Sequence to fold (120 residues):
Amino acid sequence: MSEAPSKFERDYGALKQAVEAKGFFTTPQPIKQPGDRLVVASERFAQGLRGVSFLIARRDTGWYVAAWLPRIYRIPEDCLVDAVAVEVLQSGGGTPYDFSESVKSKYGLVEVSDADFDCA
Fold:
């Protein structure tokens, strides 16, 4: 009998597979013990991830994407989370302090405060 998937695997497994299938990289955050968010990045090196990187988190109220500033955005329910992730990863140019206006507009990303995210 196989072991039931963890909550992390249930929440992030399909997204992780989709991002990695496009040639990008993922790791849970915190790294030592899978937490409640997934870091995605365009490059991997011996000590971890680099290049274009940001985090994606699933909450009771939906999916969120955040740059490291942090600038946090709710992803609308009708959007494919992996499509948002891959488009940002393909943008190149290093880790964004914010996402491009074209990505925010195309996917209807809605900025939320740290407090709103923490309560989501």
Residues 7-119 form one domain. Residues 60 and 85 are 20 Å apart (CA to CA). Strands lie at 25-29, 37-45, 48-59, 62-67, 71-75, 110-112. The chain has a mean pLDDT of 90.
